[in-house]
Write a structure and sequence with these properties.
Layout (H helix, E strand, L loop, with lengths): L6 E6 L5 H10 L4 E3 L5 E4 L4 E6 L4 H6 L5 E5 H13 L6 E6 L5 E8 L14 E4 L2 H11 L4 E4 L7 H4 L4 E6 L3 H5 L2 E10 L1 E6 L6 H21 E9 L3 H5 L9 E4 L6 E9 L4 H9 L3 E7 L6
Parallel strand pairs: 1-4, 1-5, 8-9, 8-10
Antiparallel strand pairs: 2-3, 3-4, 5-12, 6-12, 7-10, 7-11, 13-15, 13-16, 14-15
Helix pairs in contact: 3-4
Bound molecules: adenosine-5'-triphosphate (ATP) and magnesium ion (MG).
Magnesium ion (MG) binds next to loops.
């Protein structure tokens, strides 16, 4: 492999993760010029380039050193790691950050009318999946022996076609399962898009670029989850109201002109604020509640 001084990130060319992956990198201040073949994007703001590929190729590109980083589903990364482990190979990539999008789970689903009480009911059945190593590892932990039918796509129709009895596939809303008269009965693991990298950080300038990118990414991820909460409340109810909020820096409390016991509270929260949060705070005496998105943050 020729030495490189530019960091190279592989992202999905088209599909569920493609747009959000590029948007996330843009929020980190990365700008790219796209080449004519639309497979390689040259980084204009920093020495960081993009390679647009199929998501299945990302762990391999990292393992071969063609790319330093990738944005890929944990499901793809874990499958590759487990397959390498089965072959007796050392892991070639690792997860550096979870990115909070592309959420789904790898799950077992059975025909609606099949009896299922526990994993032991899968014994002796044929399970169709695109994730044979992940499924084999789970079956081993459960102590269940079953057949694995490896399919590269359209796993959900295998029971109807008679090529398998049940399936092990990615599920997000569950709508595809319902449409195919299947019912989810067990989840193997939760997945989301992650930053994947080689086990060793590059020992040259690329290592510094990687550190900088991760720092920016942490800031972007924290801001994305953060909210500014404004409310008014009786001073003696403040503690119990503040305890309901997700963690963040210490809230600011200011007096309200013309009111002796009511104060205004301003709090940055690192986490989602739900309607339930608002109702609980109102019940404790809060009023005029506002939840605002945070655009940028510098502590
Ligand atoms: P490619 O052409 O790049 O190989 P693909 O068809 O394998 O694309 P997509 O369907 O775009 O992949 O899914 C990419 C990733 O999106 C999955 O690996 C998974 O991490 C995530 N994902 C989120 N929800 C779902 C879902 N309901 N079904 C499948 N993948 C999902
Ligand atoms: Mg794929």
């Amino acid at each position: 492999m020729k030495p490189r001084d530019r960091l190279r990130i592989a992202v999905q060319k088209s599909g569920r993760l493609a747009d959000t992956s590029q948007e996330l990198l843009a929020k980190c201040g990365l700008k790219f010029r796209q080449s004519r073949d639309k497979l390689f994007c040259f980084g204009e703001s920093l020495a960081i380039d993009l390679l647009l590929v199929r998501d299945d190729d990302i762990p391999g590109l990292i393992a071969q050193g063609v790319c330093d980083l990738g944005i890929v589903g944990r499901n793809v990364l874990r499958e590759r790691q487990l397959a390498a482990q089965e072959d007796g190979d050392a892991p070639a990539s690792r997860e550096l950050r979870a990115l909070g999008f592309g959420r789904c789970r790898l799950a077992i689903a059975v025909p609606q009318d099949m009896r299922y009480a526990s994993p032991s009911d899968l014994a002796g059945l044929r399970i169709a999946t695109s994730y044979p190593a992940s499924l084999a590892a789970w079956l081993r932990v459960q102590g269940v022996e079953a057949g694995i039918v490896e399919l590269s796509g359209s796993v959900e129709i295998a029971p109807r076609l008679g090529t398998a009895d049940v399936i092990c596939d990615l599920v997000s809303s569950g709508a595809t399962l319902v449409a195919n008269q299947l019912r989810e009965v067990a989840s193997l693991f939760d997945s989301e898009a992650v930053i994947a990298a080689a086990i060793d950080t590059p020992p040259d300038e690329r290592g510094e670029l990687l550190e900088m990118l991760l720092r920016r990414l942490d800031g972007v991820l924290q801001v994305r989850e953060s909210k500014l909460v404004l409310l008014q409340a009786p001073r003696d109810a403040l503690d119990s109201i503040a305890r309901l909020l997700p963690t963040g820096p210490r809230p600011t409390v200011t007096p309200i002109e013309g009111s002796s016991d009511e104060v205004a509270l301003q709090a940055v929260c690192y986490g989602a604020i739900t309607w339930q949060h608002l109702e609980d705070m109102k019940r404790r005496g809060a009023s005029n509640l506002l939840v605002l998105p945070v655009e940028k943050m510098l502590a």
